[in-house]
Structures are given as structure tokens and as C-alpha cells.
């Protein structure tokens, strides 16, 4: 029997507006740019994937435009003609033609998994060995930039039972202002909600030590990436000094980072993301290292739309332990969607689709409307 081969790969830039400004330490987002991949195979099956980052080049080393260029120029030609059913071999080929470029590789791996799942009539999590949960806890990020508005937003999401954990983005303002902002929100929500803080590397170690002491006293549950990613020794000192757990986000991409963090004790929790790791399989390898070292795991997001969020969800569903839940709320931050069957959220969780592949169907009209080159 002739193998099913990869015929073509298309990378499409899609610009979607956000429901409100989303303020992070390094960028204020008014829209999100998704890179949607359509991978077509010789049996007529199409797989879809997504690579999405935050704030152009301000978050990481790959921009949406750069991801498209890497796929169009280097990665798609390397995949052409390969066996579409052998995902490990295809990904190894990509490793030989391109260093890094993890976001781009992740989108292609998702598309290959989606196509193979459709081909076999099973979901991506089934293809990965099986999901240990049918839904995932999902938090919401409060990042309007206004304390009163954030409290109002949290109250309404608690009342509708959509989220009961809130992550606050800090690092744009003076440290004292950030601490006051977080403390007011935690005080307003009390024991009804968990509150976490993401600094996105914005503090130095001395500022972080002072701020974390006050945030811990205010009842904050988790501190994410307080200082620059390269300062693992500083992260280790903070993790040793405080009871409130410290989570690594920008500091961890793949398994090697997990190993370095484990060796130094540089975090209590790891934020896993399929894009940072270079795909679902690499995310699972990264998780295994963290898990073996006794660290807790968290399912992170690059604020992907439905395709990337559901690909992540299939991966996170397979983790034996995921004690900090996930932040796969990306589709809810966007005003519109390019899939016909967006993910469902209820009772503080996101449902993982059980249909073949990712379980998603593109809405061709919406895709045509929001694609940048229309
Ligand atoms: C990050 O750094 O964690 C995740 C949620 C959010 O609001 O921003 C992202 C990125
Ligand atoms: Mg983060």
C-alpha cells in the first residue's frame, strides 16, 4: 500500500479583535494575530493547526509574520511528499532543516495530528494514548488595566460559573501600584476565588522579593515568572524564600529547560505550552521531566484561538497530573471565531471535543473575512 503523503501546507495570517484591551507587561493587545495552518494530504484529508504569539515580537522570538515565512520558505517544502501518517518522522525532518522555530513546528505537528486523527476516526488525545479527563479547569486573566473594572469582570464571571480562578497581569506600573491593585482585587473576591499574578519577567530580584512578601500576605496563590527568564538562580532564591509557589513561564520551553529548573530548584510549578515546546509531543516530554522532579504542572496559553487552544487541550488532557489546571481561555478573549464549533465552557471548565482529530471545523466565510491577505 502506498503511504498517504503530505501534498501542501498553507500558512494564513488571521487578525481577530479582542473583546477589550488586554494589558501585559510588554504589550497592550487590541487584537490577536493567529497563524492558521492547513495541511493537505494525498487522501484528501486536511489537518489544521495554529501558531500564535503575543504582541508581535515583544513576547518571544517568533512573530506571526516570521512564523508564516518560516513555514512557507523552509518547513512546508521539507514536509512535501513525506508520509503523512508518520508524525514522529515528519517532526524529525523539521528538526534537521530548522533550529528553534518552535511555534511554527507546533502548528505543523497539530495539523499532522488532526489529519491522522480524522483518518483513523479518533480524537487527537486518543491518538496520543488517551485522555485522563474529559474537561479542563480554565482560569481567566484580568488585564483591563483598571482595578474596579477587573473586580466587576471577576464578579460577573464568578456569578455565571465560567471562572473561579483569576490571573492578574502586572509589571507595567510601579511595583507599589501593582501590589495595591492585586491586594484590592483579592480583598474583594476573598475566598470565593483563587488569585494568581503574572509579572512576565518585569521585576528585578530585589523588587520581586519585596512585592512577593506583600502579595503572599494578601493571599495570592501563585506568582508567575517574576524576574527575567535567564535569572534561574534568582528564581531559585525566590522559590526557597517564599511559601507562595513560584511558576516558570518564559523560563521554560522544552525538556532541557525543565531539567535546568529542576536542578536549581528554580520553580515550584511549570507553565507548559505546546507552542513554546514545539508541539504536543515535546510538551509532554517537558511535562514528564517536571513531573519526575516533583514540580507541579499548569496548562498555559499563548492566547491562541480555538484551534491552538483545543490542540493544547488534547495534550493537557493526557497528563496524569495537572494540579494547577489551565488558562485555555484564548477563544473567549476574541470577538469572533474562525471555527464553526467553538470550544464550550461551563462550570469553570472547558470541554475537550471527542470528534475525530482536533474535533473542529473551520468556518470558511469567517476565515475568508479575517485573513490578512483578503
Ligand atoms: C502569559 O505570559 O502567561 C497567558 C494568559 C494571558 O493573559 O497572557 C498569556 C501569556
Ligand atoms: Mg505567563
TrEMBL record:
Keywords: Aromatic hydrocarbons catabolism, Isomerase, Manganese, Metal-binding. Pathway: Aromatic compound metabolism. Pfam families: MR_MLE_C (PF13378), MR_MLE_N (PF02746). Its EC number is 5.5.1.1. CDD domains: MLE (cd03318). GO terms for biological process: amino acid catabolic process; peptide metabolic process. The keyword Lipid metabolism does not apply. It comes from the Bacteria. Residues 147-245 form the Mandelate racemase/muconate lactonizing enzyme C-terminal domain. Its cofactor is Mn(2+). One of its GO terms (molecular function) is chloromuconate cycloisomerase activity. The active site is at residues 169, 327. Gene3D superfamilies: Enolase-like C-terminal domain (3.20.20.120), Enolase-like, N-terminal domain (3.30.390.10). The keyword Manganese applies. Belongs to the mandelate racemase/muconate lactonizing enzyme family. This is Muconate cycloisomerase 1. It comes from Achromobacter dolens.
Amino acid at each position: 500500500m502506498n503511504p498517504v503523503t503530505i501534498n501542501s501546507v498553507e500558512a494564513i495570517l488571521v487578525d481577530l479583535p479582542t473583546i477589550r484591551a488586554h494589558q501585559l507587561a510588554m504589550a497592550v493587545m487590541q487584537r490577536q494575530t493567529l497563524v492558521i495552518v492547513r495541511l493537505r494530504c494525498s487522501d484528501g484529508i486536511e489537518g489544521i493547526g495554529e501558531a500564535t504569539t503575543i504582541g508581535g515580537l515583544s513576547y518571544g522570538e517568533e512573530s506571526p509574520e516570521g512564523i508564516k515565512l518560516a513555514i512557507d520558505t523552509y518547513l512546508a517544502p521539507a514536509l512535501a511528499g513525506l508520509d503523512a501518517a508518520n508524525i514522529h518522522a515528519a517532526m524529525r525532518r523539521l528538526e534537521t532543516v530548522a533550529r528553534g522555530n518552535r511555534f511554527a513546528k507546533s502548528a505543523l505537528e497539530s495539523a499532522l495530528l488532526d489529519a491522522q486523527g480524522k483518518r483513523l476516526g479518533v480524537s487527537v488525545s486518543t491518538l496520543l494514548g488517551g485522555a485522563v479527563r474529559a474537561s479542563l479547569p480554565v482560569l481567566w486573566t484580568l488585564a483591563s488595566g483598571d482595578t474596579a473594572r477587573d473586580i466587576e469582570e471577576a464578579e460577573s464571571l464568578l456569578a455565571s460559573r465560567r471562572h473561579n480562578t483569576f490571573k492578574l497581569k502586572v509589571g507595567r506600573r510601579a511595583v507599589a501600584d501593582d501590589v495595591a491593585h492585586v491586594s484590592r482585587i483579592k480583598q474583594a473576591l476573598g475566598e470565593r476565588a483563587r488569585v494568581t499574578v503574572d509579572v512576565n519577567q518585569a521585576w528585578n530580584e530585589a523588587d520581586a522579593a519585596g512585592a512577593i512578601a506583600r502579595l503572599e500576605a494578601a493571599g495570592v496563590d501563585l506568582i508567575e515568572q517574576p524576574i527575567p527568564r535567564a535569572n534561574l538562580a534568582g528564581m531559585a532564591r525566590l522559590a526557597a524564600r517564599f511559601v507562595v509557589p513560584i511558576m516558570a513561564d518564559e523560563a521554560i520551553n522544552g525538556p532541557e529547560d525543565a531539567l535546568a529548573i529542576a536542578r536549581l530548584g528554580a520553580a515550584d510549578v511549570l507553565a507548559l505550552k505546546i507552542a513554546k515546546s514545539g508541539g504536543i509531543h515535546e510538551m509532554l516530554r517537558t511535562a514528564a521531566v517536571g513531573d519526575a522532579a516533583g514540580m507541579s504542572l499548569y496548562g498555559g496559553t499563548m492566547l491562541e484561538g480555538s484551534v491552538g487552544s483545543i490542540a493544547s487541550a488534547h495534550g493537557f488532557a493526557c497528563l496524569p497530573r495537572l494540579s494547577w489546571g489551565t488558562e485555555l481561555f484564548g477563544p473567549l478573549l476574541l470577538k469572533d471565531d474562525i471555527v464553526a464549533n467553538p470550544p464550550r465552557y461551563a462550570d469553570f471548565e472547558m470541554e475537550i471535543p471527542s470528534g475525530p482529530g482536533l474535533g473542529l471545523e473551520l468556518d470558511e466565510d469567517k476565515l475568508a473575512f479575517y485573513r490578512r491577505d483578503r
